Amino acid sequence: MRPAALRLCTWNKRLLTPSRGLVQRSQDPKKQGPLYVHEVRDKLREIVGASTNWRDHVKAMEERKLLHSFLAKSQKGLPPRKMQDSYTEVLLPLGSQPELREKYLTVQNTVRFGRILEDLDSLGVFICYKHSKVHGAQTTPLSIVTALVDKIDLCKKSISPEQDIKFSGHVSWVGKTSMEVKMQMLQLHGVEYSPVLDATFVMVARDSENKGPAFVNPLLIESPEEEELFEQGELNKGRRIAFSSSSLLKVAPSAEERTTIHEMFLSTLDSKTISFRSRVLPPNAVWMEDSKLKSLQVCHPQERNIFNRIFGGFLMRKAYELGWATACSFGGSRPFVVAVDDIMFQKPVEIGSLLFLSSQVCFTQDKYIQVRVHSEVASLQSKEHMTTNVFHFTFMSEKEVPLVFPKTYGESMLYLDGQRHFNSMSTPVNFMRKNYLVEP
């Protein structure tokens, strides 16, 4: 099997582009130059009729109620769309416009991955609005939101802030009210763009008030390549259903997993006593309970999305940065992210909420650190906490890291869940190929 870095860096052969499976349409003569990342959120506001002024948001949302009559009664009433209809390229000109770098810059002179998560989230929503565009309508009756970050795989150790970055993507699968979006990020090296990451997001369409589901245009398949992508979307849906059905919150661990936990438990018993309650750590190991970090965010209007809830990309950035700090503290060196998967947006976060983030190392192997970040909110009026998201990040440290050991049954379930997410990578990531390593 090929190293994952090579496998991931050739993923763009499966992403359809105008030169690879998509028919290039004539360009709009009125369009001058490329679409930039900072323009995407502005265009999203135009599409849904959202105001840039916080004081006007109530009026804007009231006006959206009038769009409810424009929603399709069934999917059959909507014209099919092609994958090429939603294909989008967006430029982040860090190289050609140096004044943009500070927002994206880390102290190690690399690009902040949390900012990239924000850009991917906005782009995914924008692509879905292109797929479901109502021709002739100035404002869309649909409210499209991120339901799931299925997978993000990286093939670069770090991202340079001194070269331009290009994002591209399109809708690759459609259900009745949901859409899968495949996106890719590339960075300019010399005269060519080389792959940095690939991402798969799932978006859902809601009605004009974001209160119930809405139908989206079906997808018209035109080539074997598109058929393969669509079938992969079906497989992804089946995999998610199977993964959810076997969740440790629903069913007991497998026999192999139970054996793993029991062996770990036995290895922590004090040989000097005959007791199940006397526990000692094996060499080069850390108790899971000692690997936690927490943070609190006040959700201000500045971080709102076009529907006046907290922007999902902001939540991902904050969760990632806390997860990175947890991995850094645990491993004793600066880690880099290799995979993000299974981020489910379970509940929207309202403006004014208190956002509690709790990060924990739940599995380690060699140089890898699997981190789980749990997000919950509480309103200022209520002390009740509700889970909004659970984030899963896989990091790689510069050196081998300690083993993490659970003490309780609950921590044992976290360990097994982390192991499952880690094993979802098809092969260990190898960043050491000369063509794919970018030094900080």
UniProtKB/TrEMBL annotation:
Q: Any idea which GO molecular function terms this record carries? A: carboxylic ester hydrolase activity; fatty acyl-CoA hydrolase activity
- For whether the record's keyword set contains Lyase, the answer is no
HotDog ACOT-type domain location: 86-209, 289-401
Does the keyword ATP-binding feature in the UniProt annotation? no
Q: Which GO terms describe its cellular component?
A: mitochondrion
Q: From which domain of life does this come? A: Eukaryota
Against InterPro entries, the record matches this protein to:
HOTDOG_ACOT, HotDog_dom_sf
According to its UniProt entry, one GO biological process term is: acyl-CoA metabolic process
Q: Which Gene3D superfamilies match?
A: Hotdog Thioesterase
Q: Which CDD domains match?
A: BFIT_BACH
Q: Which UniProt keywords apply?
A: Hydrolase, Mitochondrion, Repeat, Serine esterase, Transit peptide
Q: Where in the cell is it found?
A: Mitochondrion
Q: Which SUPFAM superfamilies match?
A: Thioesterase/thiol ester dehydrase-isomerase
> Which PANTHER family does this entry report, sorted A to Z?
ACYL-COA THIOESTERASE, ACYL-COENZYME A THIOESTERASE 9, MITOCHONDRIAL
The record's comment on protein family reads:
Belongs to the acyl coenzyme A hydrolase family.
Under which name does UniProt file this protein? Acyl-coenzyme A thioesterase 9, mitochondrial
Q: Which organism is it from?
A: Orycteropus afer afer
